[in-house]
Each structure stands twice: as structure tokens, then as C-alpha cells.
Amino acid sequence: MQAKQHLAVGMIGALPILMWSSSTEAAVFIAASVLIDSDHILFQWFHSRKITPLNHLIKSYVTWDYFGPRILIFHNYETLVFLACYAVYSEIFLFYYVFLAVFLHLFLDQIGNYLTFRVFRIRTLLGDIVRYQRYLSARNAGKEREFLIARRDSWINYVLGRFSDKNLDEKSPYLGGIQLTYPEQPINKSKKDSEWQDFF
Ligand SMILES: [Zn+2]
Q1: Distance 158 CA to ligand 1 centre (A)
Q2: How far apart are CA 103 and CA 81, in angstroms?
Q3: Are 113 and 120 in contact (CB under 8 A)?
């Protein structure tokens, strides 16, 4: 889901908090439900080794031509477990709202990604790191293209692709941080190999 949609849902979710709790807690809930998307930009900075000027931030992310694995430090199950544990052990009630905001964000992303791409994007942070390391090793060995094609043709994509009933090529090129040509999206197996070459 896009950040503005998360903002809208966060504001609606903050209404009951505002009624039963303080405006600070409602504001933290809204902020947390939107700011977790910042990890998409953080990864772009990390991977491309350059900081995008603020006014070009979204545009440069949307048009970013990187299709390899990404490490998203907030969009993962470990963050959720950590926040839940932290809320319980710190006994600071505010962190329950942070946990709820992040949980709601990830839940909506998961549904949005499935409806659009037939893919469940939220994963483990450890898995993200391992996949990215493998990508870097392949790239260093001069086998980046082979790596991306192997990911695109992986069994999990094949399984997901079997459930896909949409022509994904007609969808918006960007939603929820996933590029249209992101190799994890379900594959239209009828495409000839040569048709994919422009993407890599
Ligand atoms: Zn998100």
C-alpha cells in the first residue's frame, strides 16, 4: 500500500485512541503507521551508496531500476516480535500503540501486495539479509543477470503464478514499494525468454 493510504488508515485508527487515550499517543500511532515505509528509501540509499535529495525522494525510488532482493529493516516479522516484547517488558503503554500501528501496516501491505501482485512480501529480516548477500556474491562473480533470472523462475514464483488471474503488466508500475518488474512477482510463463532481457 502507498504511504498516503497508510496515513488515511492510521488517522481512522487513531480516532478511538484519541477518545480513550491522549493526543500524543494518537499522533505516535499515525506517525508509526506511515514512517515504517521509510525503510524502502533507507535501502535505496544503502544499496546505491548515495543520498537522494529530499525533493527527488519518491520519484527516484519509483523509477529505481534495481530488481534484486531488498533488506527492509521494518517490514519484517522480527520487528513485530521485537516491538511486542519491548512493549511488554518496558511497561510503557505507548509502545503498544507503536506495535499496533506496525502490525496494522504490515497486515495491510500483505493484503495489498497479494491483491496486486499475488505475492506475500512481508518476510523475515534474516531471510532478507541472506538473499541480499547471495545477490552481492553473484554480482561480484559477474553473474547478476543469472541470479535475477533464477529468482524470477524460482519454484515459489511458479507456485504463486499459478494462483494469479491478472495481467500484471497492465497494473501501475509501482505499489507498496514493489516495482512492476520486481523479479519476485508472479511470472507469466508464456513470455519468451528474450522478452525478459530488457528488464535485466
Ligand atoms: Zn509498507
Answers
A1: 24
A2: 10
A3: yes
Q: pLDDT tens track of the chain, all 200 residues?
A: 777 888 888 889 888 888 888 889 899 999 999 999 999 889 999 999 888 887 787 778 777 778 788 899 999 999 999 999 999 999 888 899 999 999 999 999 888 877 766 666 678 999 999 999 999 999 999 988 778 777 766 666 556 555 555 444 443 333 333 334 444 444 444 444 433 333 22
For the chain, where are the E strands, in sequence order?
174-175, 178-179
CB contact at 8 A, 174 and 1: no
Instruction: Quote the ligand 1 centre to 38 CA distance (angstroms).
Output: 8
Q: Are 29 and 101 in contact (CB under 8 A)?
A: yes
Calculate how far, in angstroms, residue 48's C-alpha sits from the geometric centre of ligand 1. 20
How many Cα atoms sit within 13 Å of 168 on the Cβ side?
A: 28
C-alpha of residue 173 to centroid of ligand 1, in Å = 16
This prediction's pTM: 0.73
Contacts of 71 (CB under 8 A, 6+ apart): 43, 46, 125, 128, 129, 132
CA distance 37 to 156: 25
| Residue 174 Cα to ligand 1 middle (Å) | 12
**How many angstroms is it from 8 CA to the middle of ligand 1?**
13
Q: What is the DSSP-derived secondary structure letter of residue 93?
A: T
Which single residue is written with the C-alpha cell 541470479?
147
